[in-house]
Design a protein that fits this description.
single chain, 155 residues, mainly alpha
């Protein structure tokens, strides 16, 4: 992988990889929905013998392989490693401008938003995480407005 020293280029590359990753996850979901009906009912294995369970799991693995899920899993893993490497590089690269700082903040918010449950009715909802996300979003919006005011003043 080429070394990228500009933080804005790093952010652009990370966003591009994240879009590719999202596309692969969507394809993976579509493939999983197209698997045979029996693959969606693992709890029906209760009461089966060990051999029946092994056979069913083998059939499930074969169905996933036939559908191409293993290749997608490998592609996701590769994208995750590339994103992580670029994020590590971004952490060691000076930003150098308010636009760069805003871009890094937006990248962090997007990542945090994708991992934070916003629905208070969701069993995984965490008020603290949701509140922190709100603070980050507020700071990013304030920074965005300041930058827009500076750009208008410069014109």
């Amino acid at each position: 992988m080429n070394i990228i020293t500009n933080s804005m280029l790093l952010i652009r590359r990370i966003r591009e990889l994240q879009r590719r990753r999202d596309s692969v996850v969507d394809r993976q979901d579509i493939l999983r929905r197209s698997l045979p009906e029996w693959t969606f009912a693992p709890l029906q294995l209760v009461g089966m013998s060990s051999d029946e369970i092994r056979s069913a799991m083998s059939d499930l693995t074969k169905a996933e392989a036939d559908a191409g899920l293993h290749e997608l899993d490998r592609e996701l893993e590769k994208l995750d490693h590339e994103i992580e490497a670029l994020e590590n590089q971004l952490l060691s690269t000076p930003t150098g401008s308010l636009d760069g700082i805003q871009a890094v903040l937006e990248l962090a918010i997007d990542r945090f938003r994708s991992q934070t449950v916003a629905d208070p009715n969701d069993v995984f909802y965490d008020y603290g995480d949701a509140r922190i996300l709100t603070f980050f979003e507020h700071a990013a919006e304030d920074l965005r407005e300041l930058l827009q005011e500076n750009q208008r003043a410069a014109v």
